[in-house]
Structure formats: C-alpha cells, structure tokens
Hints:
By secondary structure, the protein is an alpha/beta fold. Helices cover 33% and strands 17% of the residues. Strands 1, 5, 6, 7, 11, 12 and 13 form a seven-stranded mixed beta sheet that branches. Strand 48 and strand 49 form a beta hairpin.
Amino acid sequence: MIEYPLRHLSIRVPWHDAGWAGVVCNAPSLNGACVKLKRISEAKNEQEELPIAGKSLDEIPREQWPCCVEERATFMAPFEMELLKHHALAETSPRHYGHFKPTPLWYPAYSVGIVPFRWMMVENLEYFADELGLDIDASREPDLGYHTNWVHEVRNQSALLDSFAAHLRCEDSLSFFYAKHVPFVEATNRILIGVGRIKEIGTLTEYARGGEGMRGMIWERPVQHSIRSKGQDGFLMPYQEVLRLAEEDPSLDMELYTAYAPAEQWDEFSYASELVTHDGAISALLSMDDVLNRMEKDLGIATGWQRQWLHDELVRLWKVRGPFPGLGAVLRSFGLSRGLFIAHALQEHVGDNADPWPEVNAAFCDPSILPKELRLDLKELASTWAGLPEQRRSLLRLLSRFELRVEQAQYLYDEASRTKVGWGAKDHELLQNPYRIYEISRHDPEAVHLLTIDRGVFPEDTVRLLHPLESPSKLDSAVDIRRIRAFAIAALEEAADLGHTLHFAGGLARAIREIVVRPECPVTSDIISAGVREMSPEVVAVEMNGELAIQLGRYQEIGELIRKQVLGRVAGQRHVLKLDWAKMLDTKFGPAMDEKERLARNEKAKALAELAESRFSVLAGPAGTGKTSLLGILCEQKAIRDEGILLLAPTGKARVRMQELAGGAGTRAQTIAQFLNRNGRYNGYNGRYHLSDRPKETGYGTVIIDEASMLTEDMLGALLDALKGVKRLILVGDPAQLPPIGAGRPFVDIIAKLRPADCESRLPRVAPGYAELTIERRQIGADRPDLRLARWFGSNPPQPGDDDIFSAGDDEYSNIRFVCWKQPKDFQSKLLEVLAEELKLKDLDDQHGFNRALGATASGDYDYFNATRSGKKSAVKDVEAWQILSPLRGMPFGVGDINRQIHEHFRTGFMELASRYWNRPIPKPFGAERIVYGDKVINLNNHRRDGNKVYPQQGALGYLANGEIGVVVGQWKTKKMSASPKIVKVEFSSQPGYTYDFYSREFNDEGDAALELAYALTVHKAQGSQFGLVILVLPEGHPILSRELIYTALTRHQDRVVVMHQGPRSLLRDFSSPQHSEIAGRRTNLLSECRMLEFPQANGSVFLQEGLIHRTSNCLAVRSKSELLIAEALLSAGVDFEYEKALTLGGSIRYPDFTIEDEISGRTVYWEHLGMLDREDYRIRWEKKLAWYRANGVHPFNEAKSGAPILLTTTESAGIGLDMSYVRKLIAEVCGG
C-alpha cells in the first residue's frame, strides 16, 4: 500500500464567547460572527438559546443543544458526546435518500469532527484519481436526475475520506483551529484560534439504512487533540483576555493581537477541514509566536510556555520538512504522474533532513528500487532525464526547495507556460535570483508567496547548513541584496494596499524587519540607501528634502504620466468658447431670488467657463453645491457634444448619475473598470489597473470622471494611458470624502497643486484648471443643521455658529436626529426602535410595513416586490429611500450583525416561505445570509453578466459593478412552472427595467458570495450613492474612524440623517480634528515632495502630509491658514492658548477657535476668526453665536466689564486677507503678549 506524506490538519470552528468548552454562548444575541457560517445561519434561534446561555451541554437535553455543535463549536468540551448524524438530503429528497436513518457518532472528550469538503466535490474526482492514484471513478456515481456537486457513491466516498485521513499521524500531525469570522477584527483572513497535536483518529462510520437504497458514509470522523485547559501540549490563543482589556480601552487595536493563518497557504485553511503542509504549519506557528510575543510585551499577558511549545515544534517541523519539500510537485511538472508518491518514498528511504536527489537519479536508472505501483513513467522518461541540460536540472533542483503546488511548479518549470501566464523571466534569471519567482508572479492569483521562497532559501539552520543552496542561487547573508529587494517589494506592495506610494528608507527598513520570518532580515536605512540602485527597475529611489524615499518603479512611471498630462494641459493652449454661462444658469434655474443664490450663480458661471476653456480641470465641492447640474449644462453645449463626450465613474451608481448627464449627447456612461477592461488596462482576473502598449481610445473631445476622490494612482494612470485626442479632461468630486481603496490620493494631490494660495479668502474659487463650488443649495433658503454637522469633518473650516449642533436637542431639527447608545445590547434594541419610528411602522413587529418601506406592493395577505414591467409599481424605485450605514463589518454594531438582526426580525414571513419543503413559491434562501425574495442586496464584484442571465437582453448593459444595489424581485412561482423556483432575480436601481439571474452555486462557504444583504452597508460601500434617509451608526473611538469616513457618511443622505452615536456627542467632534485625517496620512509624491509632519498624541504620534494640513510650530493641527497665522502670532508673543477647547455656558457647548487663560490676571479670552463674514448666511450664523456669547456674559473686548471674559474677533472676506498688524495689536493689548 502506498504511504502518504505526513500532513497536518486545519479545522474551521465558529467563534464562541465561552471558549468552545461544551457550553452555550454567554451572549448568543451578540455573537453574530458564528452565523457567517451557512449551517448556523440556517438553524440558529437566539430566543431558544437565551434561556440556556452559559449552561453546559451535559446539563441540558440534546434537543436544546445549539446548532453550532454541528459546526465544531465544542472541540474543547471536557466530556464525551454522542451526536446523531442526519443525512443532509434525507428529508428534502426522500426518493433517493429517505432510507438513510439518523446514525449515532461518538466523540471522546477534547475532540472535533473533521469533514474534508473539498475532497468530496465531484469536480475534484479526476484530480484526486490522478494525483493520489485512488480507486475512484465518476462513472460509479448514481444518476440522480439532477446536478449535484457532491460525491455520493459509497466506494468513492470511502476512498476519498480514508486517503485524506491517511496523511495524518497521531502525535506527529498538528491540529490548527481557525475561524473565518470573529467579532473583533474587520479582516477576512482566517484567524488562528489554537493549535495542538492529533492524539487519536476515529474510523469511518456508514449511515444506518432503513430498507433498500444506496449506501453512504458519514463524511465526518472524530479526531481527538491534545489541547487542555490546564495542559501544556497545545493551547488556545488568549483572545478573551485581550477582549477584556479592549472593553476598558475601546481604542485598543485588536488587529495587532490577532494571529492569522498564512495567506500563502489560503487553501490549506479552507473547506472546513483540510490538510496543511509543513510550510503552512511553520508559517502558522510563526504567526502565533509573533502575536503572543506582542501580547506579552504590550499588554502584560503571560505567554512564556506557549511560545516555548511553539519553538520546540518549529525545530521538529523543520527537520521533518527537510530541504526539498517541493520535490513531488517538481517531479509531477517533469511528467511523472506519481511524482508526489515517488518523492515521499525516496525521502522516507533517505530519512529526515536528507537529500533525496541522488535517489531520484538512481530511480530513473533503475525504477525497480521503487515499489511497483510507483514505477509508472520512469522508464519512458529516463532518456529525457539523462539528456536534460544541466541548467534545466539545476532549475528542477532549485524549485524543489520550495513548497509549491503542482500548478505553480508546472508554470515555473516550463518557460512557455511562464510566458503565457505573464510571469516572464528566463531560467537563468530564476537560478541567479530565486526571489524572482515571487517578483514575477506576485500579481497573479496563483502567485508564489515571498515567504514560500524565503523558507526555501533560508530554512532553519539544521537544514540550511547541511544542504546549502548551490551557486548561482546561493545566498550567504540574510541581507543579500536579492533578498532585500524582494522584501522591499513586498513591503511596498503592502504599503500600496494601505494607500501609500512610497516609503522613506528608514520606514521601509522598519517594515521589512516587521515581516514575520526566520531568519529576520535585519536591514537598515543605510543598507537600503546603498543598495537601491541594484533594485531597479522594480524599486527606485527618489530624493526629497534631503531624505531618500523608495517606491515601486510602476509608481514612478505612473507619476510621470499623470504629471505630464495634468501640468502640461493646465499650462497649455486654452479653448475659446464664447458662451454666456450666467444666462444659461438663469434660463435653467430662473432668476436668483436671494444674495446666497446670486453668489452661487456667479461661482457656477465662473466654474463653467474654466471647465470649458481649460484642457484639464477639477471641479470640487461638497454634496448639494450643484456639481451635477453644472456638468449637465456643460454637456448640453453643441460644440462640446459634437466633439464626443466620454462619461466615466468608479461605481455603478455614479455611472447612472453620469448617464443622466449624457441626455441627448449620444454617449453611454461607463464604469472605469468597464472602459479599461475593453482597452486592455484592467485585468478582471486579479483586479489590477495597469499601463499598456495596447492601442489608445480616440473619438472623445471631452472626458468627465465623476467621484474622482475614489481614483487610485493606478486607475488614473491607466485612464490617461488609454486615451488619445482628448481636448478637455475634467475630474469631479469632493476631496473631503474617503480616499480611494488602493494607492495614492491623486484627486486630492491635484487639487492641492492647482488650488490658489489665497483660496480661503477668494470667491469664487476659480483658477487655471481649478473650480470649487462652496455654496450648498440642497434646499434653497433652508438652514440645514445636517450640513452644519458635516462641515466640521470637511476640507473647509466650519462656520462660526456651526458648533451649536453639538448641543442641539436629539430631535430638535427635522433633518437630523441624534440617538445615544452605550452597550451593544442597548444598540440592538434602539436600532429596532429607530427603524420603526423612521419607517413609520405600526410597531416593532410590523413586517408588512417594513416590506412596503422596501418598495413592496400589497395584494391581499401578500407583499409583492415587482420588477419594472407591466405597469406595476416597481420595488426598485424605493431601494434607496433609506439606508443604514456603519463603518464596520464585524462587531454587534457592524453591517453583518445589523443585516442579520433586520433579516431575522422583519423578514421571517418570506424566510418561512422560502424554507418550505413542499409547495414553495419562491427560491430557497441563498448563502449564509439566507437571501430571499424581497431582500435588499448589493453586488460584490465587477463582472459581465449577459446572455440568459439578464432579461430583457435587448438594450441590457450586461455588466454589474461592485456596489450596485438592488431588490430580489423573483422568482415567484407561476402556474406555468412545474417545479419550485431555483433562480434569484435581482433588479438594480442603477439598471431599472432589467433583472439579473443568480444561482445557488454562486453562494458557497469558501468563496465570496455574489450578493450580500444591503439593509446596512459600510460607509466605504456607500460612497458614490445617495439615499433619502440615512441611519448612521458610529461606535466610540474605534481605530477605523477617521475625519473623512464620518464626513462621507454624513453626506450620503438627501433628506434626513439619524446619527446613532456611542457615548457623548462631544466624542464625535473629536474626530473632526485635522489630525484624524486618513487622506493626509498617506505618503505620496505625485505632484509635490512628500514631507510628513509629526503630531504628538497621547499614545505615540501621527504623521501627516505637509500641504494638506496646517501645523503650528508647537505641533498643533489647525483648520485654516488664517488660524495658523493667528496661532503663530500668539506663540511668538509668548501667549499660551488652547485650540477649540470646549466651552460650556448656559447648558450648551461651543468651541471657540482659541481660548487664552491668563493665570496672572485670571482673565479668559475667547478668540473667534471669521473668514467669510461678507456672505449673508455666514454672517447670520455668526450673529446667532455672538448673541449666545452675550447672553452668557461674554462680550467683545470693547464692551466687556472688568474681570469678565473677553471675546476677540478677526475677519477676512473675498479678496481681503487677514490683517496681521491688527492681530498683533490685539495680542499686545488684550492678551498680554
């Protein structure tokens, strides 16, 4: 019998708040992480779990056991258990499976059931038959009369399940427990829960049968592990201790104390139970060791014995792994169909940590040294092996040092395959620098990870010293420039994912040293500076302010392209269009009825002229200032239409808004991904935007890109690279919104470059290539307190009276409401109350009212969600009437739990319909979120969806963009349908009149689902969309919160926003400070040198980009240039001050710009700077605040009584800057300076 190579085991478990110890969760309603698993989401009943919360399973009847028991939530139970295993299809398909009876399966204490789902998929039968030589045959599978994904024939099942278990060895194989979702981090990586050793492996059990019928095996088998609550042979990560600390300090970043399964072995930690290679095990142990070390160092949690256990296991695993873990994959790539087993047999023959390559040569010369069943292909390939050039033989030997998948080995060994998949590189390049394997493949989903290469080049010393790499691949030092370059690329790629396009040399060195690897790469800034020239062209150096910055070569190339286009166009020849823009505005909107509207018309007219005449321009401004209306007028002009117009947007919803602009312009708005995919500069396979030498697109005189704040440098560079013959390029957006997901912030950088220096005192704010709309006219003449709140988080300073919003009553205004919550349980009940009140439901259980708030049409006892056809009321028209937003996905107040709560509370009627076994009128629930008819959903991926998947086909776009929101409008069973519906049909608000089909196979546990519930969305997902009502959830002090995130969230509504804030409202204002800017924290050098300014905080410092932030000489962030001048004047005069210190008078809070408290005289001075006092709305707001000051005993200094607080004001207006001589006079006369 063939012996399988030793492997380890990964086991997926749900999150459990009581340690998986055979008890019910302590707080079932707050554990939303577990229901991300489909089987739990289908069966979980919180109301039944609440009375038994915290109780041990051995104290309660089996029928009361929670459903998570079936998902391995009791692997730490200290008692034996017997579970009844029910065949998954016995009830739903009794014709084929009804004879299978519930069958008992016994589990010893501290054990878990393992189910290798990937191995049991029909689509993988051929693979396992070929790779493992199993006696399995697809032709044996029964004809069930329908398509199935799973293996059903008993011999096939047994062979697959037994071969899986045959890779495991008691005492030698480790068992890794991981969770896909936990309530304390946002990442979607696998979270390592614990590790132990396999102690006992159970046998397979066959289902009991009642009568004739096919046989079947229970796929699950018990495996006992070594982890014990008081033992020291394995352990659970001490997350519960960290969570207790996080309760005391909500700002604690749990990401830092979370161990993740290795990204390079993603598949080994998937599919519920899977085999783990030695490399995967080593990487997982190193991840846990790194986090345990940080827990002890930062938080004082003792982890000494756990780390010693890890170190002992690492030494053992390295020896077992040996120097050539990829030998089997390499022999397969050479052509040996039994290569994996040959490699194992030869390694077993030579022993642990020995070189099997001499035995490989011997086997080709004399196959009889191998068991008969492994001799296949050796004789036939012997001549090929004998004649193999030395370089090819050396390449095979090199590749065998890396734990490669067979597919990776095949790509790398065959030069033609390498070229076909876009990896390039010649054999000699890989031999001279093994790290090139990572570099050339890193953007491919099948990439070979950096750490996979590094473990092959630098295994543990017991392996490395005995089996050193041969020349020219050999590296003698951990700081060999080849290694440093690869690590630099990895660190720079990670930085790009976080938004940065460069690292300074010192920062890059730190980032490299923080990579969890053995041996460490002890690089310094000096080493990087000296070696950067040898890293070209992948990595390049940029000198800035006397400091060396390092960036990926592609960002230097993209930067040069963007700079040439932007700066060259702005300085280029201007277009001449003799058009009366003011008259057009009056014609469209009627006569201006007040001073504010006259100012708005004037800035729009000047902006239109600049957009039309400049070869490149930006149109900036917050929501409600009329950017869309302005562009509509521009696109209506015949001279512009005749030259061709291209309208682009990063999201599907923004694309629809742009399409409305097109009107009769004869063009179709597109998403950027659509346009660039057609032009060969977007790769949907890996989601990358890139430059190309493919032909450029012509025929567009004017190109307008909306929501430009969402553009990365890669996206903008690819766009500019794809276009030719453009006369007018316009970027439109709000620079105060969230920065893009990806590298850079080009829209903000372009604005910073083109914005005039005196912009704050200029009206209108128009300059070459630059137009900014500042006057919000969302409701002409109305005072919008919601906009006042948003202004605090925007890029322009708030008006002087805007701070009254922080003291306003919870329900004082019609378009904004505040709701305070304290704890997660408190939040859940308040959210339901808010929904009932805002959606005008009869009560908290009004499901019909909720359905109608979603757009349903009532007919008798049923609510129907109609598509846009047949003259019926369309459900999709109301899909954006209301929306819940949260910054988080996880946590009880994140979108996952909120969607689940709403679904379970308001959608039970349709859930019951969809779950019927018989006479089911709608499709079964789809995915872990159990999507059913009438649900509000969001599409998650950019992809084509045409042909039979869209109806009607004629006129359909046939493409869905990430972020498009819709309603499930079908199927509903009709008289013409003989079977129950199986297809979910969705109509998206961005494509009314067309429905797209989705199938259950698009919703599996391991891959991303095609759709998600969308009652609640993250703020990032909502960017580019508008809703009538927004319910905004803001947790207290979470690290993800930023100034831009809150601003984006507060500008998603059109009519009303409900702010559900945790803790006092004053905590919310703290995030309006410029030092909480995510945009300014990005390191880029697109249009100016990167100089990061330090802002000391209570815990460390933040560093923000000069030019995007105003910093005083004492490292204080202020909102405007004028405030900076005043602050510096005070500091020069030796006057101490506090900036925006809360002032409570008369029961309400205000925030003066500067508070000066003279300890000697005991007098207090409040200083307010008034930047736009010439505007009527601004003046009205100030007069209201001035009245508040006076009413509370604070008067202007020429009115103040002796000893009373004094109010100082300084002013500036359009065209008239701040009078600094007057500022210095006030400081000298009033402030004692």
